[in-house]
Design goal:
Strand content: 5-15%
Shape: globular
Bound molecules: magnesium ion
Structural class: alpha/beta
Largest sheet: 6 strands, parallel
CATH architecture: 3-Layer(aba) Sandwich
Number of strands: 8
Length: about 180
């Protein structure tokens, strides 16, 4: 099946966080607190997905308060933190949302994502992903993790689904409602 055809079936986009929505760097403050930076382009991409009627989710191995805030702001529907077995969570998400693996897109960067990458309809790898992740992905981003890779992946899906008209018609409303990215 062609990747565009795979993308046209997607109803939910699930993302890894470290190395995918971030560039993988962690700033550790003297008191042990961590600072993470996120890319506004990716944030806009997540908003565009929502404007187009797609659901979004994150599954990450770590647990962080700042991520919770970020996900809340972006209105990401499915948020799973501190997850070691990502595939198990994927099954739970599928069941709860009544979706098939074919309807899920997932983007990641490292070996913890491999099982999920192998089992979804459309798998994406950031430009600096582990070779094994790239090998099993359908779409390999030109941009690295935290540098717009998620935006690129989302736009590929929206393009395949001919969603630009819907987005153009509705995007202003979202901004008028002071949606924050
Ligand atoms: Mg990662």
């Amino acid at each position: 099946m062609k990747d565009k055809e795979r993308a046209s079936r997607i109803k939910m986009i699930i993302m890894d966080v470290d190395g995918t929505l971030t560039d993988g760097s962690l700033l550790i403050l003297p008191d042990g607190e961590e600072l993470t930076s996120y890319n506004v382009k990716d944030g806009t991409g997540i908003l565009l997905a929502r404007v187009a009627g797609l659901k979004t989710g994150i599954i990450t191995g770590k647990t962080s308060k700042s991520l919770e805030k970020r996900a809340e702001k972006l209105k990401i529907e499915e948020i799973y933190q501190g997850i070691l077995d990502k595939k198990k969570i994927l099954s739970k998400i599928l069941e709860e949302n009544n979706l098939d693996p074919d309807q899920i897109a997932y983007i990641g960067d490292d070996l913890g994502d491999l099982e999920v990458i192998k089992s979804v309809g459309l798998a994406g790898a950031v430009a600096d992903a582990h070779p094994e992740i790239k090998k099993h992905s359908h779409f390999i981003c030109k941009n690295a993790g935290g540098k717009g890779a998620v935006r690129e992946f989302i736009e590929f899906i929206l393009e395949a689904q001919n969603k630009w008209q819907t987005i153009e018609e509705n995007f202003k409303d979202f901004f008028n409602k002071k949606e924050q990215i």
